[in-house]
Amino acid sequence: KQEVTQIPAALSVPEGENLVLNCSFTDSAIYNLQWFRQDPGKGLTSLLLIQSSQREQTSGRLNASLDKSSGRSTLYIAASQPGDSATYLCAALYNNNDMRFGAGTRLTVKP
Amino acid sequence: EPEVTQTPSHQVTQMGQEVILRCVPISNHLYFYWYRQILGQKVEFLVSFYNNEISEKSEIFDDQFSVERPDGSNFTLKIRSTKLEDSAMYFCASSDVGREYNEQFFGPGTRLTVL
């Protein structure tokens, strides 16, 4: 079964700290992996897309890596800010166009 | 910047009633999707739509659900006879290509409450 897991479920850090969010997937036959941000009661904002042939993608203070063979992806956030506080979701796209989501990591960055 | 829009933002209905959730995908996108998120649970895939037909659907997407692209801009999700367990946030998404390069862009969602 294609399951996506994210740890930790919640994370609280002081402003300025670098942090890593983890995502793992049981079936490595993914087409791509996408990281999203979700603010409370809001929609999903796409942050980064890593294609299955890529190892990492960067956007500003965000860097996402992908290791298909081990079924893992990480999202690295540098110099965290209070505005980064949100839930971060990873989602793996499979052959049947079914995007499987993790439950998310709820990040709080304290001023 | 182009974005996916959804209406209404919140829909309240009685059990057994039909509801139609509306979405306007990004204009040059070709692939359209519906997802749902029950409160406190994961986002779940419902259906994908391409070239005026369903390309994939999950086991959640049973006979009470249907999708339609009635004109060149709207994409709708119809729930024929709503149940209490249909209460959820429904997200529409679109992408301009499929498969590996498929970056999906999501709308703000419609919160459906079934009483």
What does this structure look like?
Chain A has 111 residues and is mostly beta strands. Chain A is built from no helices and 11 strands. In chain A, strand 6 and strand 7 form a beta hairpin. Chain B is an all-beta fold and 115 residues long. In chain B, 0% of the residues lie in helices and 50% in strands. In chain B, the strands form 2 sheets. In chain B, strands 2, 4, 5, 6, 9, 10 and 11 form a 7-stranded mixed beta sheet that branches. In chain B, a hairpin with a 6-residue loop joins strand 7 and strand 8. The model of chain B has no long low-confidence stretch (mean pLDDT 93). At the A-B interface, strand 4, strand 5, strand 9 and strand 10 of A face strand 5 and strand 10 of B.
> How many E strands of chain B?
11
What string, H for helix and E for strand, traces the elements of chain A in order?
EEEEEEEEEEE
Q: How large a portion of the residues of chain A is in β-strands, by DSSP E?
A: over 45%
Chain-averaged pLDDT of chain A:
94
Strand content of chain B is over 45%
The count of helical stretches of chain A stands at: 0
Count of DSSP H/I helices of chain B = 0
Q: Summarize the helix and strand pattern of chain B as letters.
A: EEEEEEEEEEE
End-to-end span of chain B in angstroms? 37 Å
- Average pLDDT across residues of chain B? 93
Biggest sheet descriptor of chain A:
6 strands, mixed
Oligomer: heterodimer
Class derived from helix and strand content of chain B = mainly beta
Structural class of chain A: mainly beta
The interface involving the most residues is between: A-B, 26 and 26 residues
Outline:
Chain A has about 110 residues and is an all-beta fold. In chain A, about 0% of the residues lie in helices and about 60% in strands.
Sequence-ordered SSE layout with sheet pairings:
The complex is a heterodimer of chains A (111) and B (115).
Chain A: E1 4-7, E2 10-14, E3 19-25, E4 32-38, E5 44-51, E6 56-59, E7 62-67, E8 72-77, E9 86-93, E10 99-101, E11 105-110
Parallel strand pairs in A: 2-11
Antiparallel strand pairs in A: 1-3, 3-8, 4-5, 4-9, 6-7, 7-8, 9-10, 9-11
Chain B: E1 5-7, E2 10-13, E3 19-24, E4 31-37, E5 43-50, E6 53-57, E7 65-68, E8 75-79, E9 88-95, E10 105-106, E11 110-114
Parallel strand pairs in B: 2-11
Antiparallel strand pairs in B: 1-3, 3-8, 4-5, 4-9, 5-6, 7-8, 9-10, 9-11
